[in-house]
């Protein structure tokens, strides 16, 4: 069971526990079992390491308050339901504060044909499906002119500044990272992917710094 399934199961078991308890089955095995499962799912989520402990706690109490709001509303306990609603909304606001928004700059330092159709203009998909095959098909000189022109115009400064709130994710070929500290490309004869990479990375870092964004790099 993956993380999403665990979160869904945590909410579901909270709902069943509240329903069983409100129906007068508080001492019933079903109420106890669903509460135990609710706690177990929370532990799985927290122990997964995929979410912060703070976010896991907020999600747990969102589930709990949502469950009791529904159960109390249906039982006519509107005063308790109002308190549950306030608790849910408080946790929800906290969750929103934990969300990090950003943008992924695909099709730039990692050419993806479906995003960069003009770079592959006049070249069939059979002949060139990615940057390396494009370079091999066109030859380094022509491919370099196309690719550098694309990189210079694809990501404009205001996009990086305005779109990246917390994080700027730059997709790039794995060989770029291997070449960042070298003077020449690892595939000298055909590869253009490392051309001027230092310039692009430096510029993007400066742009994103206006928003105090981080810049993780995804390798493909």
Characterization of the model:
The protein has 220 residues and is mainly α. It folds into 2 domains: 96 residues; 118 residues, no CATH class. It is 61% helix and 6% strand. The protein has 9 helices and 3 strands, in the order H-H-H-H-E-H-H-H-E-H-H-E. The longest helix is centred in the first third of the chain and has 23 residues. 29% of the residues are buried. The C terminus is likely disordered.
Number of domains: 2
Note the main sheet: 3 strands, parallel
Helix/strand/pairing category:
mainly alpha
Radius of gyration: 26 Å
Instruction: Find the count of extended strands (DSSP E, 2+ residues).
Output: 3
Task: List strands and helices in order, with pairings.
Layout: H1 3-25, H2 29-48, H3 53-74, H4 78-98, E1 102-105, H5 131-138, H6 140-154, H7 157-163, E2 167-172, H8 174-179, H9 197-209, E3 217-219
Parallel strand pairs: 1-2, 2-3
Helix pairs in contact: 1-2, 1-3, 3-4, 5-6, 7-9
List descriptors.
2 domains; mainly alpha; three-stranded parallel beta sheet; disordered C terminus; 3 strands; 220 residues
Write a brief structural summary:
This protein is mainly alpha-helical and 220 residues long. 61% of the residues lie in helices and 6% in strands.
């Amino acid at each position: 069971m993956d993380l999403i399934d665990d979160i869904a199961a945590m909410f579901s078991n909270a709902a069943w526990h509240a329903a069983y308890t409100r129906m007068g089955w508080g001492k019933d095995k079903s109420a106890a079992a669903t509460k135990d499962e609710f706690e177990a799912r929370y532990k799985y989520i927290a122990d997964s390491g995929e979410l912060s402990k703070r976010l896991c706690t907020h999600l747990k109490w969102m589930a709990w308050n949502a469950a009791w709001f529904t159960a109390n509303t249906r039982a006519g306990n509107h005063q308790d339901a109002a308190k549950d609603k306030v608790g849910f909304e408080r946790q929800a606001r906290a969750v929103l504060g934990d969300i990090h928004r950003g943008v992924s700059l695909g099709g730039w330092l990692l050419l993806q044909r479906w995003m960069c159709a003009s770079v592959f203009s006049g070249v069939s998909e059979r002949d060139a499906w990615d940057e390396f095959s494009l370079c091999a098909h066109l030859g380094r000189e022509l491919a370099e002119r196309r690719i550098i022109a694309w990189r210079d115009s694809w990501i404009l400064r205001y996009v990086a500044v305005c779109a990246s709130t917390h994080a700027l994710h730059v997709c790039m070929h794995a060989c770029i990272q291997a070449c960042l500290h070298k003077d020449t490309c690892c595939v000298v004869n055909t590869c253009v992917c490392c051309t001027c990479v230092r310039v692009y990375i430096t510029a993007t870092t400066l742009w994103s710094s206006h928003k105090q964004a981080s810049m993780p790099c995804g390798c493909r």
